[in-house]
Amino acid sequence: QVQLVESGGGLVQAGGSLRLSCAASGRTFSSYALGWFRQPTGKEREFVARISRTGISTSYADSVKGRFTISRDNAKNTMYLQMDSLKPEDTAVYYCAAAAVNYGSTDNRMYDRWGQGTQVTVSS
Predict the structure, then answer these.
(1) pLDDT for 45-97, tens place per residue?
(2) Distance between CA atoms of 42 and 64, rounded to whole angstroms?
(3) Which one of 3, 7, 9, 46 is most buried, counting C-beta atoms within 10 A?
(4) Exposed/middle/buried for 1, CB within 10 Å: 0-12, 13-18, 19+?
């Protein structure tokens, strides 16, 4: 099994950048497709980005396409989310998730491992 811990959240002005990290324990990190999801206060959790086991295949929500980049380093058991040109509407708790499949999914029900979340706040 894999356990996930997010870090890198914080307060940033609109137009700024943050890089989130998701560190995983366990020896089977490369066996999992990974995803980033976010949950604004009072709203449902939504898909942000996903990456396949090898890192070759990625996909993004339309709202972040062109601004966010997902990546992973299987040697370091870590996934990243580079967030550029941040907007106030990106404010949310960001969660990383893992699924024992090849490509991952935009559906949060496909993921069975979750981190505790990290807060990202973008001021206008």
Answers:
(1) 999 999 999 999 999 999 999 999 999 999 999 999 999 999 999 999 999 99
(2) 20
(3) 9
(4) exposed
Enumerate residues 6+ apart whose C-beta is below 8 A from 107: 47
The span from the first CA to the last CA of the chain, in angstroms, equals: 40
Q: What is the DSSP letter of 9?
A: -
CB atoms within 10 A of CB 12: 17
In the structure encoding, which two tokens stand for residue 102, read together? 């090849």
Helix then strand then coil, % of the chain, to nearest 5: 5, 50, 45
Cα 24 from Cα 63, distance rounded (Å): 27
Backbone angles phi, psi at 77, to 5 degrees: 55, 45
